[in-house]
Amino acid sequence: MLFFLLGTFAGIFLLASQGFAEAHSSRSKHYSHRSRFSGPRAPRAPDPPEPSPFFDNGTSRNVTTSAGKAVFLPCKVRHLGDRTVSWIRRRDLHVLTVGRFTYTSDQRFQTIHMENSDSWMLQIQYPQKKDAGVYECQVSTLPKISRFVTLNVIVSKASIPGGPTLYLNSGSTLNLTCEIMESPMAPDFVFWYHNGRVINYEINNRGISIHTEKLPKTLSRLLISNAQPQDSGNYSCVPSNAEPADITVHVLNGERREALSSHGPGTPSHDVDDQY
Predict the structure, then answer these.
(1) Which pLDDT tens digit goes with each residue over 152-209?
(2) Cα gap 172→168, rounded to integer Å
(3) Rounded Cα–Cα distance for residues 222 and 230 (Å)
(4) Which CATH topology does 157-275 take?
(5) Identical fold between 54-154 and 157-275
(6) Which residue, 7, 126, 162, 195, has most beta carbons within 10 Å?
(7) CATH superfamily of 54-154
């Protein structure tokens, strides 16, 4: 009987020990699972730094134009972000534009910028000789970065050889040639005026013709066949991008031919001019 009781107690103790071990193992797995998924997270990697703005060096630093012809000073900025582009005239440190806004009373200046474009051009309408010089394209970084553009403004001039006064006989052909001097580009047009009125050769039946050549240099020729005394007066050659030129023409009647005989028709004669 004693052995029976001892065996029973031993079995109960063994079962209790196994239950405790299983419970302890379950709690250990639970704690391990919780610590694996519920513990503090690793810090997130920082975002990469925003690239700094820089200038596109493919744009020109030297621009040449004719007086009166609109000009554009180039400036391209990569990765501008939330910074601002300004244009400054270095001669007097005058801020001309900031972003798209103009900060000068001279409305010839404005910034040309298209949405999502890297280009911030400075436009100057009707440039004059005084506008020549250095302009600064500046970006509002810390410290600021700048790119300088030099503007050259050429004042082109027209010239009519044979002036300032020309004499020819009535019935001769008046041949005037206008040369455009020191022009970096051909003019858009060349107008001829007689006594302040534009010559419209297309509706004139008197043998008037105008021919303009633009290469290699600009020449404009005015021809009037069978010139008459009413063709006398002041003639002006007016290019779109150059200062005009003038000449005074005298078409003489027959009684004056003897005075011109030593010069030939269509050539200047100061001797005849002295007789007036």
Answers:
(1) 999 989 999 998 999 999 999 999 999 998 887 888 899 999 999 999 876 666 788 8
(2) 7
(3) 16
(4) Immunoglobulin-like (2.60.40)
(5) yes
(6) 162
(7) Immunoglobulins (2.60.40.10)
